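Hi U.,

Before I forget, here's the chain from the pilot set. I'm dumping it here mostly so it's searchable later in email.
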Amino acid sequence: VLGTRVGARPPDVAALGVAERNILLGGLLTEPGVRGADVACLCLHGGTGEDGTLQHLLEVAGVPYTGSSPLGSGLAMDKDVSKRLFLRSGVPTAAWRMWPPEPDGPAIDADLVARELGWPVVVKPSKQGSTVGLSVVEGPAGLNGAIAEAARHDDEVMLETFVPGRELTVGILGDTALAVGEIIPQHALFDYECKYTPGMSEEIFPADIPETLAWEVQRLGLLAHRALKLAGYSRVDFRLTPDGGLFCLEVNTLPGMTATSLMPQSAAAVGIGFPELCERICELGRANHARSIDVNLDGTGR
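Structure:
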């Protein structure tokens, strides 16, 4: 719809934002193919496609859609809110600070980073996906530049302790955790280029980890999914440290859904093929829509 292709470099977020607004305000929901859809399959990353905006418009129009509600989508998109909810639900996550600081909070400078977060530190927009605007800063000299770069993409910037180790991921379908996988990127991080360039990462499903560890990843993945009030499906990403610690990085409410994306691989490893996965996601979307209608009609949630 936007007429753009996913490449090895992040898109112009500002230009995409203008295109999104033009489409949403230009009558997208009046199109017969949208208003008459059995279910709208959302395959979007970031922006108004993933933050709850489009989901809310579809609800107002009475169109069933795949994935989470406007509330869940918004909670997951905001990394600061997500991490607060992770901790309340017993899901470990790395220490962080937000820029700009709260009015009565300490200044965000190199001394605070060294004292509370340590070097290196991850600097990223609070409400962006696909690692757009993300930097790993090794020391004080690069801090201000990294904050400025992240601030180009969002009005809030997260500074987060860098967690070394292996990258693990688990798909959630309905209320069931699928197979745990490991991502081995060519770069130090599973960044935009590694995510969208063929051959830039190796994905192993199921991950070569002890069964007890896989169970723990699945347990924490479900807790994170529920903490954000998500529905339908999601993918939860973790870091496994050399000493065996698990830290939740984020939850993707609309994970990639090509046949070779991580979510389909997580499903395939437990015997759910791609066509079946797509059908089940659509069924969950229709079921969630039917439940919301019941609640709106009589408040019983039957």
